[in-house]
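Long-time lurker. I teach an intro course on protein structure, and each term I like to show students one example going from raw sequence to a predicted 3D structure in token notation. This year I'd like something fresh instead of my usual example. Would anyone be willing to generate the tokens for the chain below so I can use it in lecture? Attribution to the forum is fine with me.
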Amino acid sequence: MTLEIGRWGEDIAKEHLLKSGYEILEANYRFKKAEIDLIARKGNLIVAVEVKTRTGIMVVTPFHAISREKQRNLLLGINHYVQKFNEPVEVRMDAVSIIKQGETITIAHLEDAFPAF
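-- Reply from a regular --
Happy to contribute to a lecture. Here you go:
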């Protein structure tokens, strides 16, 4: 059930990014311990996107579920991914929160969500 909700949320996030002018390059990209839900491009900007999906009433936002370890793995994965480009690109790490409460869907896109530490 959780996997289905996660995939559903990633599909909603893809639609949101496409409507916002992004091109989706990869979904569920893996490198070592890293898994990046979505990799998108807008101009020369490459964006690693972590998608968090929740249903029901929330006490805290889904963004709080993104640990420092997950952030480090995202950075590791996106650094590996951009090595294949033969052009200068900028890199950013975003988070998209999808919350479904009944028939209401709330999407929050947090750009530059994690520092490149």
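Some talking points for your students: The longest strand covers residues 90-101. The longest helix spans residues 2-19.
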